[in-house]
Design goal:
Elements lengths: L2 H25 L3 H9 L9 H13 L1 H11 L9 H16 L5 H15 L4 H16 L1 H11 L1
Helix pairs in contact: 1-2, 1-3, 1-5, 4-5, 5-6, 5-7, 6-7, 7-8
Length: about 150
């Protein structure tokens, strides 16, 4: 798989993650049930399966801790986030915290694109701001290094 193919597959995995996490919030499905259901979808054949199969159970297991981190980053009560915004932020904070192999700028960009695709009209602006703050908190050295390189 080429870099471009793997990048596209990772993006598609994030899209499925948003859908799975949204479904978990709305319908209350268990993580195992979601994994099984999404494995049976045709779309699953085109995603980065390792990424999806690692991320979904991790986010499900760690959702309370991830939500605490998100709550500290946002300017409104967590309960006021719409399910798409929360799903995108869960994925973004998970990646910033646990997937240091993914540059923070990629995490932010992917989160913004997910919000544009699945979220409310200007939700991507909010996601951008939240993930930017999260990156400064969770990846402070990487952010500082990037900022020094631009000066």
């Amino acid at each position: 798989m080429t870099h471009t193919e793997s990048t596209g597959a990772r993006t598609r995995a994030r899209e499925l993650l948003v859908q799975a996490l949204y479904q978990k919030q709305i319908a209350g499905h268990a993580c195992d049930e979601l994994l099984e259901q999404f494995h049976e979808q045709t779309a699953y054949d085109r995603v980065d399966k390792d990424f999806f199969d690692e991320a979904l159970p991790f986010i499900c297991r760690s959702q309370a801790e991830l939500e605490q981190k998100i709550d500290a980053l946002i300017d409104r009560p967590l309960a006021q986030l719409d399910p798409v915004e929360l799903s995108v932020l869960l994925i973004g904070v998970y990646e910033l915290e646990s997937r240091v192999d993914v540059p923070y700028r990629v995490v932010i960009n992917e989160g913004v694109n997910l919000a544009k695709r699945f979220g409310a009209l200007d939700g991507h602006k909010y996601i951008n701001a939240c993930l930017d703050v999260a990156a400064q908190t969770l990846r402070s050295e990487e952010v500082k290094t990037q900022q020094r390189g631009r000066v």
